[in-house]
Each structure stands twice: as structure tokens, then as C-alpha cells.
Specification:
By secondary structure, the chain is α/β, with parallel strands linked by helices. The chain folds into two domains: 166 residues, 3-Layer(aba) Sandwich (Rossmann fold); 97 residues, ProC C-terminal domain-like fold, CATH 1.10.3730. The chain has eleven helices and nine strands. A nine-stranded mixed β-sheet has the order 1-9-8-7-6-5-2-3-4, with helices on both faces. Helix 1 links the parallel strand 2 and strand 3. Helix 6 packs across helix 11 and helix 7 crosses helix 8. The structure holds NADPH dihydro-nicotinamide-adenine-dinucleotide phosphate and (2S)-3,4-dihydro-2H-pyrrole-2-carboxylic acid (A1CAB).
């Protein structure tokens, strides 16, 4: 873990402190819905407290099936609604168009944006000089197994920070960074990271199928291997992954034969390094597009 990323220690998911006070989720696509699933499954928010704004009818229906209220535009929200927290889960390219309509709630609400690359200075221009946090979650938050990295602007007080952590903690680990540019790094590692792992599973499964294992068994084995290895890596933090790798690798054995390819000229290290750097650069450049 980079030195600047400090885990926030909550031993168990805590209930969202503002239970009974409205929480507004703007955008309920892939990541918004993953967050919503995690909050509700952990009981960090009650369905009757959550309001979703999402233009797609299909996605609104999906959210409503979890018991929350959903509408298609901000203007359809009840006039008296006073959200305590607003989570902006829309595309970076559309946030400048969408967010200013939510500035009207600044009197009661703090804001959390999960948009990749959209810096707090830009968000402050859209919403005002108020408490704004950037959070970079990932899709495993839907199962409470995600990682979220958070940066808070200087207007964010301790109470707001705690409230936001209590909510996000429902999705898994929450880590604060005190330099905003580290959100770009976190985006490239944990935000996009599940896609790298899914690609690895796809590649392993494809090769398993070509070896004659059959499509279903190939995919089962690839999924189970990644899940099992991840569980082992998480089960004992005193064991570095390199040590776990060594335990699989018999001298002159099969694993050694494979690792010789993956480690030659640091092939995998370089490839992954290039990929992560490209994601981080893309995150940093998105701020210029808003
Ligand atoms: N996907 C991921 O794993 C992660 C994504 N993020 C960030 O989350 C954000 C959302 O990404 P993702 O969920 O993948 O994208 P999606 O396109 O799946 O979700 C965005 C949703 O916002 C909706 N939307 C569009 N206009 C409005 C509006 N005016 N009001 C409310 N909702 C609106 C879109 O509807 P429609 O499609 O009809 O336009 C869509 O359903 C991005 O900023 C991304 O950077 C962060 C971490 C991980
Ligand atoms: O691909 C993206 O831009 C978003 C941000 C992190 C994961 N998905």
C-alpha cells in the first residue's frame, strides 16, 4: 500500500449516521448501482431514505426493485426534499452539465463525486465552495468486497467525513489520501483494477478451453483459481504474495516453467506497469475535458 494511503479502521460496517435523512444518488449505472447494492445489503442506508435520479427507465426500475425511490430528473424530486448526502455517479464527460442543478441542496448536503479525473476545483465551480469529497470505489463494493479511496476538500469537517466513511464502508475498505493526485493513481489500481483481473480470468479460461477442458469447466477453473488465490492472499496479511507464489513453485516444476515466461525480462511487470500508467494518465487528463 502506498505510504500516503491510510486505511480508516472501522471494525464493522456502521450504520449511516443520518439514518432517516435522505441520501441522493445521481446516476445509477454500473458503479452507482454497485454502490447502492452495497449500502442496502450492509444496512448502511435504509431503502426509504434513498432517492435515485437516473434517466434510464430500465435502470430506475432496477433500483426500485431494491426498494428505493427513483425519478428521471432532479426537478421531479419532492420540493421539500433536503438530502444530507449527494453521491454523483455520472460520467466525467457529463458531470459539468448535471451537477450544477444539485447546488440548490448545498445548505443541507455534502457531496461525494465518484467521477474519474474530475478534480475538486472543477466540482467547486459546479457546486459552490462547500464540502466535497471525491471517492474512487470499484464494482466489488456491490458485495461489500470493494476498495474505496477518498479525498476530501478543505471545507469537509470531521462529522461529514465520518458520515461518508460510514456509508462507503458498507462497500468494503475505505482509505483516505491527503493529496488529490493520488486519486488518479487509485483509479488506475483499484478503480479500474477489477477489469484487469477479469481479463486475466478470460485469458486463463480461453487457454483452458484450448487445452480441451471444455468451456464451462475452463471458466469455472479460471474463476475459482482467482477467487481462491485472492482469498488466500487476504487470509494472512503477514504472508507477502511473493511468499505464497513461492509455495506453489516446486523446483524444476510446472509453475517454474510458466513463471519463467511471465518473469522473463520482467515481461508481466512491464506490461501491467504500462497499462496502469495509461489508466493514471487518462484519469489525470479527464480533468482537462470537463
Ligand atoms: N464503472 C466502474 O467500475 C467505476 C466507475 N467510476 C465512475 O463512476 C461514474 C459512472 O460510471 P459508470 O457507472 O461506469 O457509468 P454508467 O454510464 O454505467 O452510469 C452513469 C449513469 O448516469 C446516468 N445519467 C446520465 N445523465 C444523468 C442525469 N442527468 N442525471 C442522473 N443520471 C444521469 C446514465 O444514464 P444514461 O446511460 O441513460 O445516459 C447512466 O445510467 C463515472 O464518472 C466513472 O468514472 C468510478 C469507479 C469505478
Ligand atoms: O473506466 C473508467 O473510466 C472508470 C473509472 C474507474 C473504473 N471505471
Amino acid at each position: 500500500m502506498p505510504a500516503d494511503i491510510h486505511p480508516v479502521c472501522f471494525s464493522a460496517p456502521e450504520r449511516f449516521e443520518t439514518m432517516g435523512q435522505p441520501l441522493l444518488l445521481v446516476g445509477c449505472g454500473n458503479m452507482g448501482f454497485s454502490l447502492l447494492q452495497g449500502w442496502l445489503a450492509a444496512g448502511a442506508a435504509a431503502p426509504e431514505d434513498v432517492y435515485v435520479v437516473e434517466p434510464s427507465e430500465m435502470l430506475r426500475d432496477r433500483a426500485c426493485q431494491l426498494g428505493v425511490a427513483a425519478c428521471s430528473t432532479v426537478d421531479e424530486l419532492a420540493p421539500g426534499l433536503q438530502p444530507r448526502l449527494i453521491v454523483l455517479a455520472v460520467k466525467p464527460q457529463s458531470i459539468a452539465e448535471i451537477a450544477p442543478a444539485y447546488a440548490r441542496f448545498a445548505g443541507t448536503a455534502a457531496y461525494v463525486s465518484i467521477a474519474a479525473g474530475v478534480i475538486t476545483t472543477s466540482l467547486e465551480k459546479m457546486l459552490g465552495d462547500i464540502a466535497i469529497l471525491r471517492a474512487m470505489p470499484n464494482t466489488p463494493t456491490s458485495l461489500g468486497k470493494g476498495s474505496t479511496v477518498v479525498f476530501a476538500n478543505s471545507r469537509t469537517d470531521g462529522g461529514t467525513r465520518e458520515r461518508v466513511v460510514a456509508l462507503l464502508r458498507a462497500g468494503g475498505s475505505v482509505h483516505f489520501v491527503d493529496r488529490e493526485e493520488l486519486i488518479d493513481a487509485a483509479t488506475a489500481i483499484s478503480g479500474s483494477g477489477p477489469a484487469y483481473v477479469f481479463l486475466f480470468i478470460e485469458c486463463l479460461a480461453r487457454r483452458a478451453a484450448t487445452l480441451g477442458l471444455g468451456e464451462k469447466l475452463a471458466l469455472d477453473l479460471a474463476r475459482e483459481t482467482v477467487a481462491g488465490a485472492a482469498a488466500l492472499a487476504m487470509s494472512d496479511s503477514s504472508q507477502h504474495p511473493a511468499h505464497l507464489r513461492e509455495k506453489v513453485t516446486s523446483p524444476n516444476g510446472t509453475t517454474a516453467a510458466a513463471l519463467e515466461i511471465l518473469l522473463a525480462d520482467d515481461a508481466l511487470d512491464h506490461l501491467l506497469g504500462h497499462a496502469v500508467d495509461a489508466a493514471r494518465r487518462r484519469s489525470a487528463s479527464l480533468s482537462g475535458e470537463v
